[in-house]
Specification:
Layout (H helix, E strand, L loop, with lengths): L1 H18 L4 H4 L2 H20 L2 H11 L5 H8 L3 H19 L2
Length: 99
């Protein structure tokens, strides 16, 4: 769960920096943009390969910013199931991103 919090906080920080124009100088750096695009492609590929329920839960949590309770209600599963599926998905993503 701590890892998920770190990943979410990092993602939110990057998004806020991007919206504030703080990444504008990095976007001019071709090496940064290449790494960023490749990482995004890799994450998208891993997400598509996740089991359907894990993929749906991850999208609801990270794209739609729904709470565990909201996700559980939408999918008619327990909050514990949501937490477990997020944890399993994060482990898969983390393991597959290691180079």
């Amino acid at each position: 769960m701590e890892h998920i919090k770190v990943v979410r906080n990092h993602s939110e920080h990057i998004q806020s920096m991007h919206k504030g124009g703080e990444l504008a100088h990095e976007e001019k750096n071709p090496q940064f943009m290449l790494i960023y695009k490749e990482m995004k492609k890799e994450i998208d590929k891993i997400m598509k390969a996740l089991p359907k329920q894990q993929r749906e839960i991850m999208l609801m949590r990270h794209k739609l910013k729904l709470s565990y309770k909201e996700i559980a209600g939408n999918l008619d599963v327990t909050e514990g199931t949501v937490k477990t599926q997020i944890n399993r998905a994060m482990i898969k993503i983390k393991n597959q991103l290691k180079y």
